[in-house]
Amino acid sequence: MSRGPRLGCEGPALSSLLLQEDTAGRRQALREQLDQVHQERTGRLRALRARNTQNFQKLLWPPGAEPAPEQ
Q: What is the pLDDT along the chain (71 residues), one digit of tens a residue?
């Protein structure tokens, strides 16, 4: 009884290799997704920091009161 063409790698070796490649691919995709989320979050936090700094400086030195110190 014929089982089809032989590919060289069969049985546990082939399934193990495919599983490792699949795991590595999922790991890489997860790393890329986490990196993207990190970059987006960093951008939002930097914008928030700039806005908070500006608002705090307005509280310390209201417009028209006296000049703000140079940064």
A: 455 555 555 678 888 888 888 999 999 999 999 999 999 999 999 999 999 999 999 999 998 876 666 65
What does DSSP assign to residue 5?
Answer: -
Question: Per the structure block, which two tokens stand in for 33?
Answer: 């997704």
pTM of the model as a whole: 0.59
CA pair distance 56, 71, nearest whole angstrom = 14
Q: What's the full length of the chain, in residues?
A: 71
Per-residue tokens: 67? 């000049």
1: which DSSP letter?
A: -
Helices (H), the chain: 11-60
